[in-house]
Amino acid sequence: EIVLTQSPDTLSLSPGEKATLSCRASQVVRFTYLAWYQQKPGQAPRLLIYGVSRRATGIPDRFSGSGSGTDFTLTISRLEPEDFAVYYCQHFDRSFLSFGGGTKVEIK
Amino acid sequence: QVQLQESGPGLVTPSETLSLTCAVSNGSINDSYWTWIRQPPGKGLEWIGFIYYSGTTIYNPSLKSRVTISVDKSKNHFSLRLDSVTAADTAVFYCARYYCGVANCFFDSWGQGTLVSVSS
């Protein structure tokens, strides 16, 4: 079973700043199955990025994903007010599906 | 866009069985992996398991002994059964579609979530 560890737990930033979120896997992952989701209070998660770096339909280009092997990053180039939320990475390896613990991006 | 809607009791007695159903609309249940995920209050997401339309199931090993996921293609819905619940099972339960395209897989559709509390 692959364990995904996200860091930091909380990121305190101001609108307009750049956010860098990390997701580290306990072993090498299949990149095609690495995705990122955004969740706002009281809402279901929303797909942002799949296949490490592919933006989902309708996702602004300020969101980008990168990485390989065991280390992956979600970058928000310039935070907008609606971007303050919790972000999760997720992976599936045919027999086990895992989520990271989440990173909360809060307004500083 | 496929739409999903969870339904079921919001309160379950300890040691009893939690049962939820997810109705699939604007699409067919005859493809993809149909998934249950839960989120305890204030905590992160936990995958429970999924069922392929053919009936093949894959469960989280930590819950496998208590979980059954089934699909009813005639009604275009799938269901979750979680046995012997305790207060630790209190969570918002989401149903979701895990879509696998040519080279990628991801959750592209989610229900709104339903809070199930376990209490006497």
What does this structure look like?
- The complex is a heterodimer of chains A (108) and B (120).
- Helices cover 0% and strands 50% of the residues of chain A.
- Chain A is mainly β and 108 residues long.
- The termini of chain A are far apart.
- Chain B is globular and about 45 Å long.
- Chain B has strands at residues 3-7, 11-12, 18-25, 33-39, 46-52, 57-59, 67-72, 77-82, 91-100, 105-110, 114-118.
- Chain B is mainly β and 120 residues long.
- The mean pLDDT of chain B is 95.
- In chain B, 0% of the residues lie in helices and 54% in strands.
Short description:
Chain A has no helices and eleven strands. Chain A is mainly beta and 108 residues long.
Largest sheet report of chain B? 7 strands, mixed
Mean pLDDT of chain B: 95
Sheet/helix structural class of chain A: mainly beta
Low-confidence stretches of chain A: none
Tally of DSSP helical segments of chain A: 0
* Mean pLDDT level of chain A: 96
Beta-strand percentage range of chain A: over 45%
Shape assignment of chain B:
globular
In DSSP terms (H or I, runs of 4 or more residues), the helix count of chain B works out at 0
- How much helical structure, as a percent, in the residues of chain A? under 10%
**Mind telling me the C-alpha Rg of chain A?**
13 Å
Briefly note the structural class of the backbone of chain B: mainly beta
Integer-rounded radius of gyration of chain B: 14 Å
Largest interface, Cβ cutoff 8 Å? A-B, 26 and 22 residues
Q: What is the assembly state of the chains in this entry?
A: heterodimer
Looking at the structure, what is the overall shape of chain A? Answer: globular
State the total count of DSSP E strands of chain A: 11
- SSE run of chain A: EEEEEEEEEEE
* Portion in helices of chain B: under 10%
SSE order of chain B, as H and E?
EEEEEEEEEEE
